[in-house]
Specification:
It is a single chain. This protein starts with a strand and ends with a helix. Strands 2-1-3-12-11-4-5-10-8-9 form a ten-stranded mixed sheet, sandwiched between helices. Strands 6-7 form a two-stranded antiparallel ribbon. It folds into two domains: 1-94 and 242-334, Isopropylmalate Dehydrogenase (3-Layer(aba) Sandwich); 107-239, Isopropylmalate Dehydrogenase. It is globular, with a radius of gyration of 20 Å. 40% of the residues lie in helices and 18% in strands. The protein has helices at residues 14-28, 41-46, 53-62, 81-88, 146-163, 180-192, 205-214, 226-239, 277-289, 293-309, 323-333; strands spanning 3-8, 32-36, 64-67, 93-99, 114-120, 130-134, 137-140, 167-172, 199-204, 221-224, 249-251, 256-259. The structure holds 1,4-dihydronicotinamide adenine dinucleotide.
C-alpha cells in the first residue's frame, strides 16, 4: 500500500524545494501517493484570509503533510496561514533538530552540535489576540495554558526518553512574565518528575541566546513556548549553516505536517538557487514517521555525502549549484 501524503508546495521558494523533495523521495522507491494542494497568497485572499478548504480536507484524509513555506504579509493583511494550520489540526509540538552535517564547513565546524528544539506551537503571543485599546495603544495577548504547556513538556520528555537523550533545558523569561512563563515552567518541572533519568535545567531566554552562540555544545534538548522557539530556532539554524539546512515537524496526536524552519525567501524566489536540504531533511523526518527508516537513512547519508564533497553546494553555503543540480547530486548518491 502506498503512503498517502498531502504535498503543499507553498509559495516563494516553496515549489522549488518541494519539487526537489518529491524527486528525492521518488528516487528512494518508497511508494507515496501525493495529494497535491496549492496554498499561496492569492488563494488565501480568495478564501477570505482563511485556509482554503481543500487543504484541510486533504490533510484530514491523509493525516500526513509535507509542506513548503507560505508568505504572510507583514503588519496588515491576513493572519499567518501557518499559525492557522497548526491550530486547526492541533499540531501542538514543533520539533526542530539542529545538527551539524558532517563535512559541511560552518563557523562551528569543530563543535559537536546536536540539539533538538521543542517549541509549543498553538498559543503564546501567536494567539493573534491583539487590540487597539485607543489610538496609539495596542495590546497583544500572550496566552499560556497549563494544558498546552504540559503536553509540549510531556512530548519533549517522551521523545528524549525514546532517543536516550540526557538533558532538557526549558527556556523562559519568568523573571519578567512571572505568571505566564511561570506557569510554563511549573508544568515543565511537574513533567520532569516523571523522567528521573533525564537531567532538567532552566535558562532565561536572553542568556540562552548568548550561551548558544558561545558554547552550543552544552545543549541537548531545548523546550520553550512559541515565540522563543521561533527566534531561537533561527539562531540555532545559523550555528549549522543557516536556514537552508534545518528541518521541522509539526506534530499533533492525529496529524503531522513536516516543513523546513525557513520561510518563502522572497529575495531568492523563482531563481532556482534555494537550498532544498531543509525540506529534504523534513522529508527524512516524515519517512521516519511513516516507518520507512531505511529510506530515511539513505537520504541522510546522501545529503551528508554531497555536503562533505562540497562540489554541488547551493549559494547559501558558498557554492554555485542550482537547486536542481544539488538535488541531482543527492539522487546520484542515493
Ligand atoms: P526566510 O526564512 O524566508 O528568509 C530569511 C533569509 O534566509 C533570506 O535571506 C533567505 O534568502 C534565506 N533562506 C531561507 N531559506 C533558504 C533556503 N532554503 N535556501 C537558501 N536561502 C534561504 O524569512 P523571512 O524573509 O523573514 O520571511 C519571508 C516570508 O516567509 C514571510 O512572509 C514569513 O511570514 C514567511 N515564513 C513562512 C514560514 C512557513 O511557511 N513555515 C516560516 C517562516 C517565515
Amino acid at each position: 500500500m502506498p503512503h498517502r501524503v498531502t504535498l503543499i508546495p507553498g509559495d516563494g521558494i516553496g515549489p522549488e524545494v518541494a519539487e526537489a523533495a518529491v524527486r528525492v523521495l521518488e528516487a528512494t522507491g518508497v511508494p507515496i501517493e501525493w495529494e497535491r494542494v496549492e496554498l499561496n497568497e492569492e488563494m488565501i485572499l480568495a478564501a477570505g484570509g482563511r485556509i482554503p478548504e481543500p487543504v484541510l480536507a486533504s490533510l484530514h484524509r491523509t493525516l500526513v503533510g509535507l509542506k513548503g513555506p507560505v508568505t504572510t504579509p507583514v503588519a496588515g493583511g491576513f493572519r499567518s496561514l501557518n499559525v492557522q494550520l497548526r491550530k486547526a489540526l492541533d499540531l501542538y509540538a514543533n520539533v526542530r533538530p539542529v545538527r551539524r552535517l558532517p563535512g559541511l564547513k560552518t563557523r562551528y565546524q569543530d563543535t559537536p552540535i546536536d540539539i533538538i528544539i521543542f517549541r509549543e506551537n498553538t498559543e503564546d503571543l501567536y494567539s493573534g489576540l491583539e487590540n487597539e485599546v485607543v489610538d496609539g495603544v495596542v495590546t497583544s495577548l500572550k496566552v499560556i495554558t497549563r494544558r498546552a504547556s504540559t503536553r509540549i513538556a510531556r512530548y519533549a520528555f517522551q521523545y528524549a526518553r525514546k532517543l536516550g537523550r540526557k538533558k532538557i533545558t526549558a527556556i523562559h523569561k519568568a523573571n519578567i512574565m512571572k505568571l505566564g512563563d511561570g506557569l510554563f515552567l511549573e508544568c515543565c518541572r511537574q513533567v520532569a518528575q516523571d523522567f528521573e533519568e533525564i537531567q532538567y535545567t532552566e535558562l532565561i531566554v536572553d542568556n540562552a541566546a548568548m550561551q548558544l552562540v558561545m558554547r552550543p555544545e552544552q545543549f541537548d534538548i531545548l523546550l520553550m513556548p512559541n515565540l522563543y522557539g521561533d527566534i531561537i530556532s533561527d539562531l540555532a539554524a545559523g550555528l549549522v549553516g543557516g536556514l537552508g539546512i534545518v528541518p521541522g515537524a509539526n506534530m499533533g496526536d492525529e496529524h503531522a505536517v513536516f516543513e523546513a524552519v525557513h520561510g518563502s525567501a522572497p529575495d531568492i524566489a523563482g531563481r532556482g538557487v534555494a537550498n532544498p536540504t531543509a525540506l529534504l531533511q523534513s522529508a527524512v523526518l516524515m519517512l521516519l514517521h511513516l516507518g520507512e527508516e531505511a529510506a530515511a537513512m539513505r537520504i541522510e547519508r546522501a545529503l551528508e555525502a554531497v555536503h562533505s564533497e562540497g562540489k554541488h553546494l547551493t549559494r547559501d553555503l558558498g557554492g554555485s549549484a542550482t537547486t536542481r543540480e544539488f538535488t541531482t547530486a543527492v539522487i546520484e548518491k542515493l
